[in-house]
Design a protein that fits this description.
The protein is an alpha/beta fold and 425 residues long. Helices cover 68% and strands 9% of the residues. The protein contains 11 helices and 8 strands. It starts with a strand and ends in a 6-residue tail after the last helix.
Length: 425
Amino acid sequence: MKEIKCPECGKVFTIDENSYAAIQKQVRDREFNEELKKQTSSAVQLAEAEKDRVITELRGQLHSLHAEKDLAVREAESRFQREAAAKEQEIIALRGKLQTEGALFEAQKNSAVQEAVRAREEQQHEQEKELLMLQAQLESLKSAQELKEKQMLAERDRLLKSKDEEIAYYKDLKTRMSTKMVGETLEQHCEIEFNSIRTRAYPHAYFEKDNDARSGSKGDFIFRDFDADGTEYLSIMFEMKNEMDETATKHKNEDFLKKLDKDRTEKKCEYAVLVTMLEAESDFYNQGIVDLSYRYPKMYVIRPQFFLPLISLLSNAAQNSLEVRRQLVAAKKQNYAAERFTEQLLDFKERFSKDYRLASERFGDAIDEIDKSIAALQKVKDALLVSEKHLRHANDKAEALTIRSLTKGNPEMQQLFADAGVDVN
């Protein structure tokens, strides 16, 4: 039992250990929520600013394309008018010269006029053909520009949709995190998190409670994933430990490792993972994904925020291993000689290099556009990484909260804890 003196009325009252811990938690949660709201709001503003910048950049590109098209049309019309005026001047000059000739040369003049007219008609016909060709080129340029505009508009819409989805995600994250998973246990939290991506990321996976206690022990959840042919390539035994579930007796993560390894072995799972909120102040367990394979084979200890990332890491590694095993089995069945395999590999590389060179020559413009899109997406990615950094910084601040930091500059609270026998230093 601890005694606490009210800073307002001076009355001393006694509270038990659990109530005292609850007071500490309220102070810590309020600071954490305020910092988290501030950082999340900053992330949302950054994402919205990036969306506006992308819209402005795309509008500028569209304006540049329209200007290029108008310039090409004006240059073609100007050239045609200059050539027509020059030919007209030549005809006028020829006619003037023929009129100065005498009657003696009337026949020659008529012949010359006819020849000039014929030449003019031929020239005019060639000019008309050239004009039609220029008009066809302009139409082709116009069609290409319209297609490019449509592609850019489609890309803009896709980027806007992506940014809107990201903004909606962070707003939803802000709302959900502010509730602190009220009424939700750690097991329920992990199950909800996995089910939210099950259909998209793990359509063939099995993730259910371990209800088999025939051996006298069982874990919390078993995860198994299969390829399209039904071959199992990954299995994980999960144990979840919530600090709030252990209020009577404070356990350590070490207390559950041996049992978890035993459950993993009996249920024939490849990996064992302890998802824990115990030892909340431990720097060792707060560093991220903790590999304890030096203690027990293929065992990891993680905080709840690394639940889905760890499944993804193990799944990717297992799929790569499965593909390698398939290739080895296929090679043994077909009984390829090593030399033949090397020849085929070199031939494939040579043909692939040739095809790639030809394709790169033909699609240079397309590659340039892709590079621009990649650069734009990289900027979006950098902005999101900055947002993630802010959120991680907020989490680090929450983890670093102590009674000393919370009561700094507040002599009333310092005196309150001092009267209760707690050393705030």
